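Appendix B. Raw example, untouched.
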Amino acid sequence: MEFGSGDPQALMREFLHLVGGCAVIDGGLATELEANGADLNDPLWSAKCLISSPHLIRKVHLAYLEAGAHVIITSSYQATIQGFKSRGFSPEESEDLLRRSVEIAREARDIFYNDCLRGYGGHSDIKKRTVLVAASIGSYGAYLADGSEYSGHYGKDVTIENLKDFHRRRLEVLAEGGADLIAFETIPNKLEAQAYAELLEEANIRIPAWFSFNSKDGVNVVSGDSLTECVSIADSCKRVVAVGINCTPPRFIHGLILSIKKVTKKPILIYPNSGERYDADKKEWVVSTGVTNEDFVSYVQVWHEAGACLIGGCCRTTPKTIRGISLALQKEHAIPGESVP
């Protein structure tokens, strides 16, 4: 389906109808790249693979599609023109790398579609599973690579105009690069949410977007700003077609969904992390704080019943997690046309 024209809210409703009422988002990209041998100990994080190993990105996208994902998120979360420039790339080369993140996701989708057709004996009239490519935009804090994306504390000198100037060209390049929507992820504060909303209007972006915040207390976003105030900003933006939570421990998700429902009637998306905590000093995950894959999947029905209609995983979730989510939703609602290997 084409998201580039028409009423974006109606198009999102059509998409959700096509997938049976609840879409499956993919899982953690960076940690799955590491599981496939990538070394991401770098300020560019997963975006490093756009330079060194794009084939691994394609492989991970394809693994999530095969697990049942309806939405795959590009490897551009920590890919910025400013970050690539610091590595010696020209502005033109940096923009090409951003476009490449979308191209790789689209290539994975094409491979998946072709594999589906072959599985049906090559009959072109077989309905393909609807898959959207979401171009990821991480926060200013992600570019800083100092952990401030998980605090939202950028300092008093950072203004809305600063943030708009930082994000503007990346947003334009990704929006023009063939993605179906823009995923503003791990938004840590109200300031950045407002900057995104204003940019979507000022830059005349033609494709829709979602806003996804993160929380560490189950009440507010990580900066301490009110979640409901942040969601209100997303709700008032015409090009935002869904709003929710990512990279947040599963134990907080149910309460956060209920809080979001009080503010917006837009579709709610959630893709929590595994509950594990990253120790930035030791550069390792604290596994004891997480939940098992089975426990994560056991929450799916509760989250869906509470109001979430796009569900996936973030850091430390895997294709196995996404397969579990897909199967749980199929069992609950008999998603049409689905067959997860």
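End of appendix B.
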